[in-house]
Amino acid sequence: MTGENSSALAQNWILLLHQTRISAQDHINRRLWRGDPGGVLPDGHDAHSIAAQALADFCQENNHPPGREPTDAEVPAILCDLQQRVRRHVDRLHHRKENFLLRNEPDLARVFTDDGEAVSPIELLPAPEPTGLQALLRKEDEAEVRQFKAFLGKDRRLKTLFDSLCDGFRKPRALAGKLKLKVQTIKNLLKQLRRRWARFPGSQAP
After folding, report:
1. How far apart are the C-alpha atoms of 10 and 2, rounded to whole Å?
2. Cα(49)–Cα(21) distance, rounded to whole angstroms?
3. Which residues lie closer than 8 Å to 189 by C-beta, 6 or more apart?
4. Angstrom distance (rounded) from CA 50 to CA 95
5. At what angle do helices 183-198 and 156-166 cross, to 10 degrees?
6. Half-sphere exposure of 67 (CA within 13 A, CB side)
7. DSSP 3-state assignment of 5?
8. What's the pTM?
9. Are the CB atoms for 158 and 192 separated by under 8 Å?
10. Is 55 exposed, middle or buried (0-12, 13-18, 19+ CB in 10 A)?
11. pLDDT, tens only, 88-118
């Protein structure tokens, strides 16, 4: 086989991969992913990875020698096979449970805080590391505790909640029972308390 013919056959693999990627992108664009036409596919897949997987599966299942490039006559049949594999792969990804349960963060509906500020629900999730407020409760620095309570001003409910936290009550349900309030009200007050701590001078809050 001459070098010129070998180069032409190598181009057939490149052509097949390119056409398969276009087909994968077309199938992806026809569907919603996590509620968004341009959303993120499960496991970080994209058109290129799906096309590469289809090509690898074809070679493995057909015992196609890696060093043998397809001839021009074989290209149409191989392309048809690859496109079918792409369609099945995209269908499987589209029916994955997380595609319906999860949403992309920018597409999540804004929620309103008690201060009337519209924020992403992600911002209201507690951080895994201890917050400055939690560190203050653990440290039990009486001077800083008095300063923070003074910073809370005349907000009686936040002061009462803070005192309960200092007394060792941590769970919203336990706080709700102690303060005779609803659990959801306690959760809202805890969010307010964290935001007030973030504005407390010297809190070193993120």
Report:
1. 12
2. 8
3. 157, 158, 161, 181
4. 15
5. 90
6. 0
7. helix
8. 0.45
9. yes
10. buried
11. 988 888 777 665 555 555 545 566 666 666 6
